[in-house]
Write a structure and sequence with these properties.
about 500 residues; elongated
Length: about 500
């Protein structure tokens, strides 16, 4: 390439799901009627870069060429989204017009949105961009926030800039600062703060150990929501791989990923008016929904029967597969969605069916319709169902001593480690395994003879489906791990069966 040629190429990337796909920004500046054209299947935000880039270049003291400027985003068939192309487009124009040395951008990936004054701003998916640059062994040039990713991506080569003018002088290698992960804030209740409800607390401990899904049923004000929030306090912190995977989903959704990078498991509680797109994801470009943002954490659905039946049934695939696949005309995009589902429901529309203090005013047909909104297929995927009864007011006013979340969390961690060491090839919690590996895990669950007999008898009497039987065994295996038992015994099967109260109530 000779010095007189007026074209340049800069590396960048566009998001496709949680991955950053490489894109070349090719700029050609030629004589002719002044024009600024962007081609290559860019969306509206990409095409609007023309005005931001033009203003940013001039405000930073550079000259915008009074010529024909054509920007091509290659590969052309790939759709490009977002404002992250502003910085690479501006940089390529400056290189093509000789205002920026070409070697400053060699082996570099540029991502960032430009303000009209030339300042560089962050865009959704910066963590995905950083991981892509790291995998390609390229230097990432972008907004100053990219330095925080160097703690998680240790060999990331990053050059933060504040304005477009900073590209004139390539920064020296910035030493990786020591970034201490912020201590998780106590934003959830401690189990010791919840009076009574020993059965529900036990269910939470089992769910946290095995990744099982839980349904709390009871009248209003009995502590169902507090129990769900307390789940965060007994789950172990995210390990490094989990933290990066979780933070990636939050990053591409435009949410703050700081907590996930610090090891804090996400807790998502969408309102019951949420749509299918809000729960699973969607839009253009496709963005992850609530179930994906709960990846490696907890999804809490309060007032479960109030959700639209279609929205609830859409959860069946993520609960089984641990992922959400959005199919579009031009692509299939998969988002991870491996979470623990905790749901809360009233026993009837008025909320007082079976309550010892207040009488239910609902007709039997109304109760049946209310329960039918959840649907059998979804309920069949709930491993644990627990009644949360009203606590006597005199009991609430007494002074109580109860186990704290930290004590329960230590037992959960020990039981998880026992499960992993028992089957070293299956390094995930029981409740989160895909179906094929779940069957493999059940085959290795080591049921005693009396446990097998009890299981067969319970399955026949309760008319349990094959899925329900498998989940029943997985809960029993988790109970055995909590009690340091090598084999699943009959009491473990019976306790697991006792956590299917919704099935019992429905049958009654």
């Amino acid at each position: 390439m000779t010095a007189g040629e007026m074209h340049a190429t800069v590396e960048t990337a566009t998001l496709l799901g949680i991955d950053a796909v490489p894109v070349e920004v090719q700029v050609d500046v030629s004589s002719g009627i002044p024009a600024f054209t962007i081609v290559g299947l860019g969306d509206a935000a990409v095409l609007e870069a023309r005005e931001r880039v033009r203003s940013a270049i001039r405000r930073c003291g550079f000259d915008f060429p009074g010529a024909r400027v054509v920007v091509n985003l290659a590969p052309a068939p790939l759709r490009k989204h977002g404002t992250g192309f502003d910085l690479p487009i501006a940089a390529a124009i400056l290189v093509a017009t000789g205002q920026l040395q070409r070697n400053l951008l060699e082996s570099a990936v540029l991502v960032g949105e430009l303000s009209l004054d030339g300042s560089v701003r962050s865009v959704p998916g910066m963590l995905a961009q950083a991981r892509s640059a790291q995998a390609r062994r390229l230097r990432l040039i972008g907004p100053s926030g990219i330095l925080r990713y160097r703690a998680a991506l240790s060999d990331l080569d990053a050059q933060p800039i504040d304005t477009l003018r900073d590209l004139l002088q390539r920064c020296a290698e910035t030493p990786c600062p020591r970034i201490d992960a912020p201590a998780p804030r106590k934003c959830f209740p401690d189990l010791a703060d919840i009076v009574g409800q020993s059965s529900a607390k036990r269910a939470l401990e089992i769910a946290a150990t095995g990744g099982h899904h839980v349904l709390f049923t009871g009248p209003p004000g009995t502590g169902k929501s507090m129990l769900a929030h307390a789940m965060c306090g007994i789950l172990p912190a995210l390990d490094t791989d989990e933290a990066i995977a979780t933070a990636l989903v939050h990053s591409v959704a435009g949410a703050d990923e700081t907590a996930a990078l610090a090891g804090v498991r996400p807790f998502r509680a969408p309102h019951h008016s949420a749509t299918i797109a809000g729960l699973l994801g969607g839009g253009s470009p496709p963005r992850p929904g609530e179930v994906c943002l709960a990846h490696n954490g907890v999804l809490f659905l309060d007032e479960l029967p109030e959700f639209a039946p279609s929205a609830l049934q859409s959860l069946r695939q993520p609960l089984e597969e641990g992922s959400v696949t959005l199919v579009r005309a031009d692509a299939r995009i998969a988002f991870p969605a491996r979470f623990t589902l905790i749901a809360a429901a009233n026993p009837c529309p008025c909320g007082y069916l079976g309550d010892s203090q207040r009488r239910c005013t609902c007709a039997e047909s109304t109760i049946s319709r209310y329960r039918a909104r959840v649907g059998g297929p979804l309920m069949d995927r709930m491993d644990i169902s627990v009644d949360v009864p009203r606590i006597d007011p005199s009991f609430l006013l007494r002074t109580h001593s109860s186990e704290t979340s930290s004590v329960v969390a230590s037992r959960v961690l020990e039981a998880r480690q026992r499960a992993i060491s028992r089957n070293a090839s299956l390094d995930e919690s029981i409740g989160t395994l895909p179906r094929g590996r779940l069957r493999q895990h059940i085959a290795l669950s080591r049921l005693s003879a009396t446990a097998s007999e009890a299981l067969a008898s319970c399955a026949r009497v309760g008319h349990l489906s094959g899925r329900a039987v498998v989940r029943l065994v997985s809960v029993a295996r988790t109970i055995a791990d909590l009690e340091s038992s090598a084999d699943v015994l009959r009491p473990h099967i019976l306790e697991a069966l006792g956590y299917r109260t919704w099935d019992t109530d429905a049958a009654a």
